[in-house]
Amino acid sequence: MEHRHLGRCGLKISEIAYGNWITHGSQVEEEAARACVAAALDEGITTFDTADVYAGTRAEEVLGRALHGVRRESLEIFTKAYWPVAPGANDRGLSRKHLMESAHNSLRRLRTDYIDLYQAHRYDHETPLEETLRAFDDLVRQGKVLYVGVSEWRAEEIAAALRIAAEMGFDRIVSNQPQYSMLWRVIEAEVLPLCEKEGLGQIVFSPMAQGVLTGKYRPGAAPPPGSRATDAGGSRFIRGYLTEDILTRVQRLRPLADQAGLTLAQLAIAWTLQSPAISAAIVGATRPDQVRANVKASGVRLDPAVMTGIDEVLGPVIFTDPAATASPRTRS
Question: Phi, psi (5° rounding) for residue 43?
């Protein structure tokens, strides 16, 4: 497993991170979740990403139990706050009250004294950005959080946060967690250029486009039983990819994957990591063998001809609408 700096900060993270959105606490039983975490550790993954909202806080609890007893200094544990976790008026958003309480609750559920990277899960239009950044800064100064970042923020929102932090002397954000894959390249227009200039790392989620880029969804065929497309918790996120055109084009990637000596899933993950602006790609799993297969994308350098071939196959179906990013319906 190779490691990369998280942007220009000093923290190094495994370039393939393990994420437990949907799976832990909902899609798989705890025994299977622990087996997947154990496989990730065995394969050299040191970075684990979760959020308080995943499985209604249960995902953090499962991850905390799975990592309990592992040398804390060898791990990078990331979590997030923003989405509602309870019915109260202040049980959501990026207010000082919610962030402070959410951080403390996440520390308890994760069974740790500090969070390596604490992320604003979305932008909060109802809370002054200064308030959010001051709360983040206080958590850092208290030693409960080491670094702060954001997830699915627009370029102008990230720029505003960096400007305010500089003006007020706050700890600046070091990362963004956006959706990014061969099929979803929204961040390339504005977010990536800004973050490269400012030194923010990208921790990308859904590098396999909700599993579509694994090739298991075939044109003209029903989704495989037990797949995300048949799961009530995940089907709404994958629906837009399940068109005949997209599924046909994905199958046309197989010769390119064969040329690179990779599976389609490994090709998809490796593709995101070709850019030095990407610090890590998050992968999830319901079985340990999936983890072991996915980590083989670490360290892969794709031939330029393969990269060009991918663009030629997928070009017409790549999503590039900047207005689609940071959708409130997207929760990873």
Answer: -90, 5
The first and second tokens of residue 33, run together, are 């979740």
Global pTM? 0.90
Within-domain flag for 237:
no
Q: How confident is the model at residue 254 (pLDDT cuts 50, 70, 90)?
A: very high
State the residue range of the domain holding 41: 3-210+266-300
User: How many CB atoms sit inside 10 A of residue 154's CB?
Assistant: 21
> If you average pLDDT over every residue of the chain, what do you get?
90
The candidate with the shortest Cα–Cα distance to 195, out of 224, 219, 162, 223, is 162
* CATH code of residue 171: 3.20.20.100
Tell me whether residue 54 is one of the annotated catalytic residues: yes
Residue 7 covered by a domain: yes
**Number of independent structural domains in the chain:** 1
List of residues 6+ apart from 7 with CB closer than 8 A: 174, 175, 195, 199, 200, 201, 279
Residue showing tokens 């800004």: 194
Amino acid at 162: L
Q: Which of 18, 54, 82, 147 is catalytic?
A: 54
pLDDT at 324 over 80: no
On whether residue 37 sits in a domain, the answer given is yes
Half-sphere CA count of 163, side-chain side, radius 13 A: 8
In a domain, 169, yes or no: yes
Q: Rounded to an integer, what distance in angstroms lies between the CA atom of residue 16 and that of residue 3? A: 8
Query: What is the full DSSP assignment across 178-213?
Result: -B-BTTB-GGGTTHHHHHHHHT-EEEEB-TTGGGGG
